[in-house]
């Protein structure tokens, strides 16, 4: 089959041979898949030449935008010099080592080491074992339960999906694995009842203390959470939540793990999400924005506290991946971080586009079908509502989100819908004018929902 013939046939070939992640394949094959052909800046183009503003940065990851020749050049140079070597048997490569140094330089003095993986899921599998090895080495082999949250997302491997709190994922494969338990999420709009957001934040955090007391602090290794839940719907916790969680972890000597896979690398206007909230985590899985998605790479940032035990006392850590510290992926990530530094993208989100986005996003709260529009940096969550005065939701929340998402798509804007929340996470290079365009197109989608779906 020649290439031109194949191109016109991609839809049929895809249906015949390609299984997609998180998809109902029968439905996808009937509807037909969209084919993305090329991209530049904050825009993607499909195979018909239709242009979209990518309000989702690929999948939360293309922080520096598309078409960065500096990154592809760095990748080509590394490919030609050394396309692969491992970091297992007493060896390293220059990009892997320099990348670890670079990441730690932004993580602050609390952290000392990075363990590399190929993805965010693998990063979660990695700290999961680190946390247990840590306590076992210190003479507490029973301190091994991990507490996580309902509706959290930590990837799709067996450990990642277990740590995550998605019931519909647990149902497939008999998850979670033993030793992982879940508490509630700080989702005030839907679960807060008559409490104020601040009261509810304390209540939701209090569930951690209740769970620790129920299990016994001597049985609990760690608590894991995203600074802001991403895939769960950009659930921004009330202001009281994180200080209370931090207090509880300290009080009972539980490791705090912040999953920085989305919040890391500038998304919140700080290098890392835990810095935005002033937290002191012990382990942080990272991925996505680390390479802006140009090549797959993830890792775990390890605090001095944990690294000292793992390195000086635990002996061999029997864990790793063929592609841990892959030199080409590391070269892409190094160049990506150089761009973030040189173009001051973190500061730009913090001081300019973040506040601008916050104001534009918040302006949608005047719409009849919007219950709440919140954001931090360039991460926005918008709650749809059938009745905004009583916080009543649509009868089928997931359908409401799909209506808005599809209307936006038709009008050249990619956003994600999680149930009845619209999520935005654009590339960090987005301009004020492009933010206006994003919000205006979304408003059109909200109008469409108001006009077509009974409340
Ligand atoms: C995407 C994501 C992961 C999983 O990363 P993969 O690279 O898809 O394995 C883990 N945690 C969070 C918070 C994520 O958003």
From TrEMBL:
Gene3D superfamilies (alphabetical): Aspartate Aminotransferase, domain 1, Type I PLP-dependent aspartate aminotransferase-like (Major domain)
Keyword Heme: no
EC number(s) per entry: 2.6.1.-
Keywords: Aminotransferase, Pyridoxal phosphate, Transferase
Record-given protein name: Putrescine aminotransferase
PANTHER family: AMINOTRANSFERASE, AMINOTRANSFERASE CLASS-III
UniProt record similarity statement: Belongs to the class-III pyridoxal-phosphate-dependent aminotransferase family.
GO CC terms in record: cytosol
Alphabetical list of InterPro entries matching this protein: Aminotrans_3, PyrdxlP-dep_Trfase, PyrdxlP-dep_Trfase_major, PyrdxlP-dep_Trfase_small
Pfam families noted in UniProt: Aminotran_3
GO molecular function: pyridoxal phosphate binding; transaminase activity
